[in-house]
Each structure stands twice: as C-alpha cells, then as structure tokens.
Recover the amino acids of this structure.
C-alpha cells in the first residue's frame, strides 16, 4: 500500500497532476507559447550562442513560430489538446527563451490578455535568474491576484564551474537572490535542474536537488541532458566525447534526488522532451513512459518515497 501523503494513486512522489487536480478540481494542461524573446547570453549582452545545450528555439521544441500572434498560438494549441481532454482548464506556458527579458510594457502586452480568459487557471513563465528586475516581479505579483503565476527559473546546476561550461551567464548567488525575491511575493516558483551535465558526479546532482529544499521552492523539473543537433554542446561532444548517463544511471540518480527533496515540493517533470530527428543522444529519453515506469518500479520495489531522506516535517 502506498502511504505517501501527496498521492492518491501508486505514485511515490508529489506529481504535478496530483497538485493540479487538487488545486483546481479539473484536468489542467499547459499550452506552450513562443513570445519571440531572446536571452542575454545569446544577444551579446552577456554572451553569444546561449546555453550550450539550448537549440535554436530556446528549448521551446513544441511551440508555434513567434511570428504568430500569441492568442492565435494559444487557440491552436488548445484545439489540439481539447481533442484529448475536452472541457479542461489551461495554463499558457511562455516557454521559449527568456520571457522577462524585455521592457515592462512588452511583458504586460504578452501576459495581460491571458488573465482575462475564464479557462486559464494559471500562467507559467520561463525565465532566467538575472532577468527578473523588481518592477517586473512586482507586476507578476499583481497578476497573481487574478491567476496563479508560476515563474520557472533555470538553475541546471548549483555549481558555478558547470555554469561556466554550459555558458549559463550568471552565478549561483544571482540565482539564490532571484528565488528569495520571488518567495516574498504571491507567485510560485519552479526550478529546472539537469542531470548528466559534463563532468558532474552523482553526488553533485543530488546536491543541486538539495538547493531546492534550502530555498523552499514550490516545484522542480528534473531533466536529462539532451545532446541535440546544431548546438554548441553537440559540437563539443563530437570533438571531446564525455560519458552520457544510461537509463539505469538516470533512474538511480532521480530516485535519490526524490528521496532528499521535501515531499511538499511538486515534481512537474522527471524527464524532458526532445524532437526525435534532432536528438543525437541519449535516445532512451524518447521513450518517456518507460523512463517514468522504471522510476516508479524502483521506488516501489525498494519502498522509496519522496522526502524520506529529507528533514521535512508535516
């Protein structure tokens, strides 16, 4: 029998689906959007080329072209999802690039129309820790009076040496300051971390997960490093190959990360998406159901639950 407190099925971790159903009493899905922003480590203000693993669409693999009006993008995405989940609620997800890297006026223009849509229960905004000035955070805090606001911030790794290798363009102190400022608002924060970054050990990946406890974040997305075509990482990998995690290694690391993460932290993702034709390695990530099933089986077999090795108390 599964006695995990934040589960009403066989899951032994705090799933995003569990949170959404209990929070909104409905099926809720995200609609990915491309607002046409860029990043400071792409446009030359902090660097060029972006993060080494990031592709030409700013990690928004399944978004529409940015030339398309945002509401039109949203309606097209919703039409596809409604075929599977009719009469559901939605979360517009500003996914591609850095969606607070622009003027306050432009940011308002992008986000405000979605605050008025009845089926929208929340808005998710992907950004960087060095691109969330206080005036923008204050605006998002105002938006949180109308809809739930999720600010998704890429950490990837807590280690500054790794950050330099992947051309992230900011250090851990900047990330920590950003999260602490978000936590003073009514917005919610989701942190992205990546397993399998070059030269990182299992222990380093687990320490990165522990940071999410220290900063009391609301949710985490755990990704496996994808090496995709036409990225700096792909070029580096071709010239200087490094070890890429196997499925078994990834499952083992994720299960240990879940054990140290406070059970109150929502797990929005345990594996990422890549376009099959663009993925160089690891190809096992294309079989998402198998990855998730292997995590579930290991946790059940070994009687593991999220937070069992954390200091969290009810």
């Amino acid at each position: 029998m599964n006695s995990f407190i934040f589960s009403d099925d066989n899951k032994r971790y705090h799933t995003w689906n569990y949170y959404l159903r209990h929070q909104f009493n409905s099926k809720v899905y995200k609609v990915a959007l491309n607002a046409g922003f860029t990043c400071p480590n792409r446009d030359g203000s902090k660097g060029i080329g972006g993060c080494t693993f990031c592709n030409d669409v700013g990690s928004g693999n399944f978004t529409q072209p940015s030339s398309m009006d945002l509401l039109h993008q949203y309606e097209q995405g919703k039409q596809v999802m409604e075929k599977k989940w009719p009469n559901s609620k939605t979360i517009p997800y500003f996914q591609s690039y850095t969606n607070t890297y622009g003027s306050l006026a432009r940011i308002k223009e992008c986000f405000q129309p979605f605050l008025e849509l009845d089926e929208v229960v929340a808005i998710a905004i992907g950004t960087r820790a060095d691109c969330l000035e206080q005036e923008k955070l204050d605006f998002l805090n105002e938006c949180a009076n109308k809809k739930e606001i999720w600010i998704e911030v890429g950490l990837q790794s807590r280690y500054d040496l790794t950050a330099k290798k992947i051309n992230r363009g900011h250090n851990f102190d900047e990330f920590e300051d950003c999260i602490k400022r978000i936590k003073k608002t009514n917005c919610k924060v989701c942190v992205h971390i990546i397993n399998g970054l070059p030269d990182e050990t299992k222990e380093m990946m687990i320490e990165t997960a522990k940071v999410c406890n220290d900063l009391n974040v609301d949710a985490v997305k755990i990704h496996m490093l994808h090496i995709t075509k036409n990225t700096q990482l792909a070029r580096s990998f071709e010239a200087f190959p490094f070890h890429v995690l196997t499925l078994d290694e990834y499952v083992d690391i994720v299960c240990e990360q879940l054990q140290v993460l406070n059970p109150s932290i929502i797990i929005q993702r345990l594996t990422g998406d890549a376009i099959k034709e663009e993925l160089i390695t690891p190809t096992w990530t294309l079989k998402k159901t198998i990855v998730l099933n292997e995590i579930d089986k290991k946790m059940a077999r070994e009687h593991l639950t999220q937070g069992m090795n954390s200091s969290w108390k009810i």
In short: The CA atoms of residues 54 and 231 lie 6 Å apart. The first strand starts at residue 28 and ends at 33.
